[in-house]
Amino acid sequence: MIKYFTIYFIIINFVSFILMYIDKRRAIKKEWRISEHTLILISLLGGSIGSLIGMYTFRHKTKHLKFKVGIPIILVIQLFVIANIIR
């Protein structure tokens, strides 16, 4: 069970990091964008670390309050839930 969770965790965070990169590149080129709803949803599904790293690596969505505050809150809640499940 932990093995599958770890694999899922790695994949979902990689996907969220890549989505931040893609959305930033599309923003620069003024192309069709990935919706904020999708970016938040990926974070809620476990990709909050990848989203947070992507935000600051690519300087993307860092001025938006729902990302600047929301993603870290999601991360803290997820860490709390994981810590309580592991116990």
What is Rg?
13 Å
Distance between the termini: 15 Å
Strand content: under 5%
* General form: globular
Averaged pLDDT: 95
List the total number of helices: 4
Helix content: over 70%
Provide a brief overview of the structure:
The chain has 87 residues and is mainly α. It has four helices and no strands.
Note the topology.
Elements: H1 2-28, H2 36-58, H3 65-68, H4 70-86
Helix pairs in contact: 1-2, 2-4
Molecular structure report:
- By secondary structure, the protein is an all-alpha fold.
- The protein contains four helices and no strands.
- The radius of gyration is 13 Å and the shape is globular.
Q: Which properties best describe this structure?
A:
87 residues, globular, mainly alpha
